[in-house]
Design a protein that fits this description.
- The protein has one domain (3-269).
- It has 272 residues and is an all-alpha fold.
- The longest helix has 34 residues, at 113-146.
- α1 crosses α6, α4 (84-99) crosses α9 and α8 crosses α9.
- The protein is built from twelve helices and no strands.
- Helix content is 72%, strand content 0%.
- The chain starts with a helix and ends with a helix.
- This is ABC transporter permease.
- The chain crosses the membrane at residues 20-38, 75-96, 117-142, 162-183, 190-210, 244-267.
- Keywords: Membrane, Transmembrane, Transmembrane helix.
Length: 272
């Protein structure tokens, strides 16, 4: 089965499914709204704090988070806040197949389990690429609107953060896909996935790192979050962390591969 047919299969399944379309629209809306409104919010905050000695040096030129060169890392990190929304889309996509018995019907109609997984993986790829494209268009618009430098070399410097964001979304969605195959029920999966990714692992890794001085880069959520590092120290501490480390990319990509293999293992092991 080629990629075009698998995308068409997913499209025909969910084109009339309103909750899926609502979540997709919510993701695009939140993504664009955050980018378009944050500059005004920051300017308002700095104006309110103009008598604060610590922030006075920001008021000379504003907080240049949308200046070219910096904008791609800044936006990529901010956009990761919304990666749970497409993750819920993937969870719904997979668990709906179980609740409506369409996965069993697909297999009866001649679709192999590998092809079924590939159809879900194609949806993950499309959403990941779409998210990266959305980030690029938003960054280009905001940079051309606010950045004092607009030459071609400045615009495309650090553009690799767009691809890094796409990879981060892809691995995170692979993790969500594995969770959906594991638990098979949308409500349970969403709750447990949210608990683990937003609470359990962050708390566990913080304890292990800060109390016991353990290395925690190999935990999945930690590895995913390390692809695009927090960029804002440059404005407060004059500390620049503007590189994408190959170790972070490899560890995160390895987790993506593991989640895909585990999803396929669950599909092959379980009766439909």
């Amino acid at each position: 089965m080629n990629i075009t047919k698998t995308i068409e299969l997913e499209y025909f399944k969910f084109r009339h499914y309103k909750p899926f379309l609502v979540i997709l629209g919510l993701f695009v809306f939140c993504f664009l709204l955050s980018g378009l409104s944050i500059k005004s919010l920051l300017d308002w905050f700095l104006e309110k704090q103009k008598d604060d000695d610590i922030l006075k040096h920001f008021l000379k030129s504003g907080l240049p988070i949308f200046d070219f060169v910096d904008i791609w890392q800044n936006l990529a990190w901010l956009a990761t806040i919304f990666k749970w929304i497409p993750a819920f889309m993937i969870i719904i996509s997979v668990t709906l197949e179980y609740s409506q018995k369409t996965i069993k019907q697909n297999i009866i109609d001649g679709l192999s389990k590998r092809e079924f997984l590939f159809s879900k993986l194609s949806l993950v790829v499309v959403i990941s690429i779409g998210s990266a494209v959305l980030l690029f268009l938003l960054g280009l618009f905001l940079g051309l609107l606010y950045s004092p430098v607009k030459d071609i070399s400045s615009i495309f410097q650090n553009i690799e953060f767009v691809a890094a964001y796409g990879l981060e979304v892809f691995v995170f969605l692979c993790m969500a896909m594995f969770a959906a195959f594991l638990f098979q029920r949308s409500g349970v999966t969403i709750i447990l996935f949210l608990l683990y990714t937003a609470c359990i692992e962050p708390i566990l890794t913080a304890i292990l790192h800060y109390r016991y001085n353990w290395e925690v880069w190999f935990f999945p959520v930690e590895a995913i979050n390390r692809i695009v590092r927090v960029p804002f120290q440059r404005y407060v501490l004059n500390y620049v962390n503007d590189q994408i480390l190959i170790q972070d990319v490899l560890v995160s990509a390895a987790w993506g591969f593991i989640f895909i293999l585990l999803s396929y293992w669950l599909l092959k092991k379980r009766d439909l």
